[in-house]
Amino acid sequence: MTDGHEGGASGGWDPAHHALRDLVMAATVRIHRTGVGYAPEESGEFLGSGFFVAPSWVLTCAHVIDGGEEGEVTVVYQPGPFEEPCAVPGKVAATLPERVDHPVPGNWPAPDLALVRLREPVDHECVYVSERPMPHYAAGRVFYAGWTSYQGRPEILDGYLTVHGTIGGWSSGVQMRVGDNDLPSGVSGGPVIDPVRGEVVGVLKSRAANGSGGTSIGFERLRTLPTAPGERRHDLYRHGLRHHDPYQQDLYQSVCHAHDRYHRDRQQPTDSGRPTWTDLQADLGARPGRTLTPDERAELLGRLADLPPPDSTRGLLDILHSLPNFRLPNLSPAPRGWRDGLGALYENVRNDGALRLVTEYAMRVMTAERPVTPFVLDAEQALWEWIKQAATRLDSEYRSELARRRAQHLGDRSRERTGRDRGEHRAAGPAGEQGREHPRGTARDRSVLLEVERLAWNRDHCDWSVAVVRADGEATRLDDGTGAPLADLAARVAQPLAEAFRRCDEPGRPVPLLAALPHLLLDLPVDEWRLRPGADPLGVERPVVVRCKDRDQLPGEDDWYGGDHSDAGFPDGGHPDSGFPAGGHPDSGFPDSAFPDPGFADGFGDVDEEEAVRRDRWRRVHAVRERAENRARAEILDCDDAVRRPVSDVAALRGLAPGTVPVLCRQGDARYPDDATALGRIVRAGYGVVLWRRWSRQTDSVCGEFHRGTRMTVYQVDGAWELPESVHRLRKQVREGLTEAFWAKGIALLYDDPHQPLPGAGDLLRAP
Question: How far apart are CA 462 and CA 577, in angstroms?
């Protein structure tokens, strides 16, 4: 429990809280099934509660709308205590999770959220939703509201709940535990409010099976909503649209921008005379970020919402990390919109620098790179007016610096607009952007690493971790797990992977996924996993390549000829992929790619002969060859004119030409006892780039096409550094139904850079 400036879910009952209660109840709705002859005053077909989070948008629980018919529901709301209820049709726009195959009543998986879009425009109240990153509490009280059926009629109820902590810890399904009050059936989906700050912090998710109370899920979990297919946001602005299309673009940004513009506009003079959330927050004595008044905060958020949203989470995080004297904690889910970035400042800044930091953040948002349109220029000017007014409380030297930066920004905008008018602006679309440089530190300099470690005592289970890795090798662990069944691994890692991708992706430039697997699992079909039902496979969404995690357990010289290699613990195995310097190689001059530069070595220093061979092979297949005869070449190792043959031993594999890229046509066609270790033997022989396809009987008919296709693919690239993108492109073409690419169905790529050691010296990356 804290004071009115720093907030902490306490409680009180005074005129300000009476006004808060009225606003909450006016925005709280009940949700019904659709049906002919439905009467709003009756509780038939009642599903649960929800609340208006933005004009024409209702937030509720996914399990509430599960009873709707094909996503169609009826939303009933009551504008005031003496007004008749109104019914309006609604359409479910999104749910988290998107689908639950076998729901268990009372145990719907988190986050259990749904957004419903009204099909008709109506006038209604909207709640104010906290912009803070994770507004959970260990103690105190929260206010709630919801609808229930009482004696056959719908009744709205409200009350206070005591906070008892959280469930879920650091997981994406973290929930706030609340109790000391009865929660009848139907209130699920209703708002949970911090009565000290006067803002919604969550959604009632469930009620306790035994005893009072239940759980609440935070609004910030909506940040995990996927971006719908459609044009890029900046392209929409380039075409002159002021606000991106909420039905085809980023639903989270659409709802949040509409929310913030609503509360900004509600502060304008009107004839209604209704109190506003900003008014009552001022009456409550709230002080957002310990520096802004509620009115200043509403105005700032509204002006930020007039700008295009961040082009990516990565870009927003770069802005936050660049702020002086500010350290952003590792939040999950990470901030996604301008309002999230502002909220992150509130809880992680010292009191004496809060206003300067907020002003600096607004300045950097204003000067962020975006296409120039008249609407953008107007929005930037409006934001500058807010900055200029807020800076009057700061010293004159800083105000002068802001003015200089504003003048420089105007000059840049003027030149960019002049170039656009002359037809010199860069082409739209990810494939046509000519003028945009992607600096170091953006998505192209990062990768997402999935590490899997098979359990020695239970070979069907594994430990795993997900991390974001920079080009310099620095890794940030996001999540990990132990004892996961291999059959369930894709589902276990879907949420952490989605969060990692969202942190790193740039529009049109998805970050690559590196799957570090033990050699007996190198064929694990990670590229075929999906983050959610109905989504494209990961290998279609982004480059997905494989790395070998257990080089110390690779098959030795004499271990190729069969037998059970399930334990794979050879004492004379290869060296761990760690401890070797990435330096010592000049700039290769290669074009930028989504992967680190291959790293040419002038000499191998103290590394042993086996590692020297590995690095030499890596160098040769990555060299740009001016003469055709010097290009890297694909070598089919397990198939000869559609006849299956065993893969050679390690010594024979080492005898292949230095520029060879090994190819397996029938990986998984286990006709020989040594097939399980074929990929491991190839890696042991020094190859860091290997292509294969997962064999099935249905692929026999295109065996020759696969041979031809892989040879052409390897031959046509300027160096092996292009193969990850080439394989990604092939997977997309297969998905799109391009007949000429069907030979590549099931294609996989090992891309194991000896100059980029896996973090943790071969150990599974874990939390400190």
Answer: 20
Question: What global pTM score does this model have?
Answer: 0.79
**Cα separation values, 333 from 97, 166, 379, Å:** 15, 16, 28
Structural contact between residues 61 and 113, judged by C-beta atoms closer than 8 angstroms = yes
What is the Cα–Cα distance from 582 to 472, expressed in whole angstroms?
Answer: 9
Work out whether strand 446-455 and strand 513-517 pair parallel, antiparallel, or are unpaired: parallel
Asked if residues 221 and 96 have their Cβ atoms less than 8 Å apart, the reply is yes
Q: Locate tokens 């980029």: which residue?
A: 756
Q: Which of 683, 675, 681, 688 is nearest to 638 (CA)?
A: 675
User: How many helices (H) does the chain have, and how many strands (E)?
Assistant: 18, 23
Q: How far is CA 727 from CA 75, 594, 709, 746, in A?
A: 47, 13, 11, 10
Instruction: Name the nearest CA neighbour of 379 among 261, 276, 296, 277.
Output: 261
Tokens 């799109």 label which residue?
Answer: 736
Q: What is the dihedral of CA 581, 582, 583, 586, to 10 degrees?
A: 150
Do 615 and 601 contact (CB within 8 A), yes or no?
yes
Residue 126 CA to residue 52 CA, distance in Å, equals 5
pLDDT in tens, 351-398: 667 899 999 999 999 999 998 887 888 899 999 999 999 999 999 999
Per-residue CA distances from 207 to 134, 165, 178, 183, 406 (Å): 21, 15, 9, 6, 52
Query: Helix, strand, coil: what percent of the chain each, to 5?
Result: 35, 20, 45
Closest CA to 523 of 746, 756, 743: 746
CA distance 169 to 160: 24
Distance (Å, whole) CA 728 – CA 735: 11
Task: Tell me the C-alpha distance between 197 and 347, whole Å.
Answer: 14
Q: Residues 741-764: pLDDT tens digits?
A: 888 999 999 999 999 888 864 455
Distance CA 655, CA 664 (A): 17
Of 527, 521, 534, the residue nearest 464 (C-alpha): 521
The closest alpha carbon to 693, from 754, 753, 742, belongs to 742
Beta bridge partners of 664: 692
Q: Are 481 and 471 in contact (CB under 8 A)?
A: no
